[in-house]
Amino acid sequence: MFDQNTPYTKVLFLTNQSSKASSDTDVYFRLTLDADGILRFYSHVFFGQGRAPMTEIVWLQPSSDRCDVKGVCGPNSFCHVSSNGKSSCSCLPGFEFSSANQSMQGCWRVRTGGCTGNSSNDDIRLTATMVELRNTSWSDKSYAVLPPTTSIEACKDLCLSDCACEIARFGAYCSKQMLPMRYGKMVPGSNTTIFVKVYTYESRGSLRKTRSGPVAILISGVALVVFSLLVLLANMLLCKHRLSSQYMRAPQQQDSEFDEESIAIRSYSFQDLELSTDGFSEELGRGAYGTVFKGVLTNGNKDIAVKRLERMAENGEREFQREVRAIARTHHRNLVRLLGFCNEGMHRLLVYEYLPNGSLADLLFRSDAVPSWSNRVAIVLDVAGGLQYLHEEIDGPIIHCDIKPENILIDSRGVVKIADFGLAKLLIGNQTQTFTGVRGTRGYLAPEWSKNTAITVKVDVYSYGIMLLETISCKKSMELKLAGEECNISEWAYEYVISGDLKKVAAGECVNEVELERMVRVGIWCTQNQPVTRYNEECRSDDGRKH
């Protein structure tokens, strides 16, 4: 029997005896071990004639402390008894309930920090602190016990500097413990204190505000009160002047990484590019930060694509520097070639080779004549080769962050090129992961983007898997349904793997079935939820070329 009020009830014994108080009244009894670990004996009276049934607890297992039952609260949470005698669960500091409606299921971290307590990058600073929790008892699964002479401060610091340590326990001795924490309960007067490692993120902007100090805040407050009209007038003038002055200062404010003389590509003047594009008259497409126009170099013998960046006051300036630095250091047949740039006053433009055959999205979803099966296989293998180069074959990997058919372009010879590095993330030296805000396109985002955790090149592998399945099926991932409900293309393809009807993935097209199955399986492996289980580019390239 299943009790909706306690959805995790396990029934040990059920009597189906009927005690007839009247001809239309039934009484049923059941004995259950409820989710809180207490054995209870219930009676259910059904009166009939539209009257609501009545449920009573006839008997329950006696217990002086409801929290004595191990497992009454899930991992990373602890049990405490309220004044009315009922038990409830609370999360460790820095954690929240994994299910808002089921507090007994346990808790998970609000933020994770990887294998380092303190880290930073261009966008986010990650800080770890130890938060104290007193009067609790837990199952002791320590992996390291420190000498009894270890002080409480040393105990916290040693855990903070240990990437494996998540909990420091301090009582008769100091010990280190990993997650999950189990069998927690409130024990008033306990001589053991635990310290939980809690992570916080701060943007550079908020850090600057924090560092300004109370004196600056006081001065600002006085200035706002006394000189409010003057400040308002100054702000109006500043807003008018800010954009142009920022652009004029930009060349001097660029960091040492963006040195025009150190980049082996040509620098164009704005006037040159305005002439080359006939006043930016022929638009090829639009992106998040700019518009692409077709042009011809002044010597008249080479078509070009000119990306004119907009909204430069905020993200656009960073995107311009990021894209130039990323592409200028790459040389691969499957990456779009950057011919030059313009960094003049308020103008930011990028000059690319012109690719006349458009994007992969145009061929797959907006063309009457889609590429043949062999051509589609060649396309996904070429993209894998380009990603392998970005991730493994250059000094300092580049995470593209926005792999999708719209960013896969095709030149006049049919060569595939990965384009649009505006969201790319550059890793430095031996760095293998980084913290950054969400980048990319809905439908192609790996699950870790939403988990406030470090990202690696595996986010590109996930996006590649979605793109691969879209390419071999000629179907848009976000437009698919299973049993009338929306699903992504990986779930859709997996259903056909299970049913053994893979031909439907290729829309009935006559294809090599062994090759089709291998491609589908590679796509599914690329889109696994856990990054460590996803294919890498070398495996994908080798797997595809075996057939």
Characterization of this structure:
- The protein folds into 4 domains: 10-62, no CATH class; 77-206, no CATH class; 238-354, Phosphorylase Kinase, domain 1; 358-547, Transferase(Phosphotransferase), domain 1, CATH 1.10.510.
- It is 29% helix and 24% strand.
- It contains 12 helices and 28 strands.
- The protein has helices at residues 152-160, 204-211, 213-226, 228-253, 270-276, 312-328, 360-365, 373-392, 458-473, 489-499, 513-526, 537-545, and strands spanning 10-15, 26-33, 39-46, 54-60, 77-81, 87-91, 95-97, 107-109, 119-120, 124-133, 136-137, 144-145, 167-170, 174-177, 184-186, 193-203, 266-267, 283-286, 290-296, 303-309, 338-344, 347-353, 398-399, 408-410, 416-418, 425-426, 481-482, 485-486.
- The strands form 8 sheets. A 6-stranded antiparallel beta sheet has the order 9-10-16-13-14-12. The chain has a 6-stranded mixed beta sheet with strand order 17-21-22-20-19-18, with helices on both faces.
- Helix 8 (373-392) packs antiparallel against helix 12 (537-545), helix 9 (458-473) packs antiparallel against helix 11 (513-526) and helix 10 crosses helix 11 (513-526).
- The longest helix is centred in the middle third of the chain and has 26 residues, at 228-253.
- The two termini are 54 Å apart.
- Mean pLDDT is 78; it is low at 1-21, 116-120 and 243-262.
